[in-house]
Specification:
197 residues; 3-methyladenine DNA Glycosylase, Chain A; EC 3.2.2.-; alkylbase DNA N-glycosylase activity
């Protein structure tokens, strides 16, 4: 009897994927999978693009600072920032000053660990349905700022063969006071794990 082949794990997305305009990267990140090496994983179902000097809402709009240094480094790194004095948010860097904010995940693995990290979540939908929720569920903090998502170390984004949606919903971004009319948010239509419809 033949020995069954061990299934290969999905490979991290290549750096060249990120080294493009964030308006192209963002919708193509939908349905990719954010993975932690401890087994937690979630499918990306909602994103927002931020476009540096062309975008008054981007942290990098006024140039490089100590806070935004990672955004001006190599594409494919994680940019993590603190907001509202209480929450972490994570982004995939897309080149000088550009990034894509990961706004929501559909949990697909390691849910016990996610619930342990988010004890107030009442159901699977509440685990990762917002940028602060997903960083809590995935234990992403300032310690992950600058990690290389393409190396498959502590955190990575992989393509498991699920294509991005052919017609993602496109809207304006959420919770901004600048560039509020830019339609740079995308999400998977009819997905229950999106933060806001």
């Amino acid at each position: 009897m033949a020995t069954p082949r061990k299934q290969a794990l999905p490979r991290p997305i290549d750096r060249s994927f990120y080294a493009r305009d964030p308006l192209r990267v963002a919708p193509q990140l939908l349905n990719k999978v954010l993975m932690c090496r401890d087994g937690r994983a979630g499918r990306i179902v909602e994103v927002e693009a931020y476009r540096g000097a062309d975008d008054p809402a981007a942290h990098s709009y006024r140039g490089k600072t100590a806070r935004t240094e990672v955004m001006f480094g190599p594409p494919g790194h994680m940019y993590v920032y603190f907001t509202y004095g209480m929450h972490w948010c994570c982004n995939a860097v897309c080149g000088p000053g550009n990034a894509v904010l990961i706004r929501a995940l559909q949990p697909i693995a390691g849910l016990e660990r996610m619930y342990a990290a988010r004890p107030l979540a009442k159901n699977d939908r509440q685990l990762c349905n917002g940028p602060a929720c997903l960083t809590q569920a995935m234990s992403i903090t300032k310690l992950q700022n600058g990690i290389d998502l393409t190396q498959g170390e502590s955190y990575t984004i992989v393509d498991d063969g699920t294509p991005p949606p052919r017609r993602p919903v496109r809207t304006t971004r959420i919770g901004l006071t600048k560039a509020v009319d830019y339609p740079w948010r995308w999400y998977v239509a009819e997905n229950a794990y999106v933060s806001k419809k």
